[in-house]
Amino acid sequence: MNHPTGFHGHPTVRGRARRLVLGLTTIFVMVLGAAGMGAATAAADTVTVGNAPFGVAVTPDGSFAYVTNNVGNSVSVIDTDTVVGAPIPVGTNPLGVAITPDGTRTYVTNTGDNTVSVIDTGTNTVIETVPVGIGPSGVAITPDGTRTYVTNTGDGTVSVIGIDQCTGSLCIDFGSLTGSGSGAGSTGS
Q: What is the pLDDT of residue 178?
């Protein structure tokens, strides 16, 4: 008899492979979701955005979603179920997207030109383009909104970008700490 071997070496939950637990949860949710709901209510709404949408991030208040259009070299902004204006031009082949905890800025990794575009969410325009390592893809922002971390798949590094913090009319510039993993703000290797 053939026994599945794909669970060897994976973490377990109460002695069972985690993949199996998640699989059963997904099936359970799918069955519950379909029960009592007609096929028309189970279908998702779709919104037309730019060419080859890839990454998506939602503002903290849930009012907007920013979608990277990888082949279109742009970012689409969605308000509820409609696109807000034309896509925002960014660098080449945008992939990752993250929004600051206060919802004022969106950071977009542009893998084709090794940059990060910074979008002001109030005006939906690019306010800064930051050079980073080779092949930036993933992006995350610290919970306090002071740093952006960017994974660079082309050179195996992580770039750290300091985010300006403003209180009233006082702005503190943390500066860019981008680089190859050594220097200011990094632990080096």
A: 46
For 101-128, b/e burial (b = at least 16 CB within 10 A) is: eebbbbbbbbbeebbbbbbebeebebee
Question: What three-state secondary structure class fits 30?
Answer: helix
What is the distance between the alpha carbons of residues 63 and 121, in angstroms, rounded to a whole number? 11
Residue from 118, 139, 121 nearest 129 by CA:
118
> Phi first, then psi: what are they for 112, rounded to 5°?
-75, -25
Homologous superfamily assigned to 53-177: YVTN repeat-like/Quinoprotein amine dehydrogenase (2.130.10.10)
d(CA 109, CA 113): 9
According to DSSP, the residues that pair with 139 across neighbouring strands are 150
pLDDT grade for 167, boundaries at 50, 70 and 90: low
